[in-house]
């Protein structure tokens, strides 16, 4: 089974096929992730890493959704997909003109068919993208990098997780990066 480091840039990872659209990065494979289909077979990938990549892709909604479908297509059942992105309320996200869309836990969970079905039953307004696109993954974990001065105050016990959550809702530059780990569900959730 394959492991892919998609959009690797100069961050090459041992044990992975390092993939980028720019030959100047000297990846193992040059692939434009916005052109379909991707060159890997259905269900052939055990693990995908996308570090500071997804926020650059799919300015057009149809292209973004096609990327999600390709991620799902190439992944084996129970494959792990790790996505690291800048928090949308950080200068790292806002300053880069090549960032085309914010990536959030809530947005990624729109491809979880179990949550899609719950939302439908509860009369929720979330678009059930997992069902519509026939993709399904579960958010296994999410982690954030708290920026200074918030990190020191949090680590020193002066701020609680609730304090950080409130700060994120009201201030910029509280969180730098977010890392989301998804597990691919094949067959899709049947509940």
Description of the molecule:
This protein has 191 residues and is an alpha/beta fold. It is 27% helix and 26% strand. It has seven helices and seven strands; from the N terminus they run ββββαβααααβααβ. A seven-stranded mixed β-sheet has the order 3-2-1-4-5-7-6. It starts with a strand and ends in a 7-residue tail after the last strand.
Features:
26% strand, 191 residues
Could you give the topology of this structure?
Elements: E1 2-6, E2 17-20, E3 29-30, E4 45-51, H1 61-74, E5 75-86, H2 91-94, H3 105-108, H4 113-121, H5 129-133, E6 137-146, H6 150-155, H7 161-170, E7 175-184
Parallel strand pairs: 1-2, 1-4, 2-3, 4-5
Antiparallel strand pairs: 5-7, 6-7
Give a short summary of the structure.
This protein is an alpha/beta fold and 191 residues long. It has helices at residues 61-74, 91-94, 105-108, 113-121, 129-133, 150-155, 161-170; strands at residues 2-6, 17-20, 29-30, 45-51, 75-86, 137-146, 175-184. InterPro entries: Methyltransf_11, SAM-dependent_MTases_sf.
Task: Compute the CA-based radius of gyration.
Answer: 17 Å
Number of helical elements: 7
Number of beta strands: 7
Class per helix and strand makeup: alpha/beta
Q: Main beta sheet: strand number and arrangement?
A: 7 strands, mixed
**Strand order in the largest sheet:** 3-2-1-4-5-7-6
The SSE string, one letter per element, is EEEEHEHHHHEHHE
Shape: globular
Query: What's the rounded overall pLDDT mean?
Result: 96
Low-confidence stretches: none
Helix content: 25-40%
Strand content: 25-35%
Task: State the separation between the terminal residues, measured CA to CA.
Answer: 29 Å
């Amino acid at each position: 089974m394959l492991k892919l480091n998609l959009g690797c840039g100069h961050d090459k990872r041992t044990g992975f096929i390092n993939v980028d659209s720019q030959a100047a990065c000297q990846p193992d494979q040059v692939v434009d992730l916005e052109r379909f289909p991707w060159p890997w077979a259905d269900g052939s990938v055990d693990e995908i890493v996308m570090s500071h990549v997804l926020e650059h892709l799919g300015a057009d909604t149809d292209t973004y959704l096609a990327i999600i479908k390709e991620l799902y297509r190439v992944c084996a059942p129970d494959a792990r997909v790790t996505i690291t992105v800048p928090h949308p309320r950080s200068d790292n996200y806002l300053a880069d003109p090549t960032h085309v869309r914010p990536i959030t836990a809530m947005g990624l969970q729109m491809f979880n068919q179990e949550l899609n079905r719950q939302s439908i039953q509860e009369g929720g307004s979330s678009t059930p993208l997992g069902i519509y696109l026939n993709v399904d993954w579960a958010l296994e974990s999410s982690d954030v990098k708290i920026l200074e001065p918030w990190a020191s105050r949090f680590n020193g016990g002066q701020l609680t997780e609730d304090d950080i959550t409130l700060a994120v809702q009201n201030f910029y530059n509280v969180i730098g990066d977010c890392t989301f780990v998804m597990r691919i569900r094949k067959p899709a959730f049947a509940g």
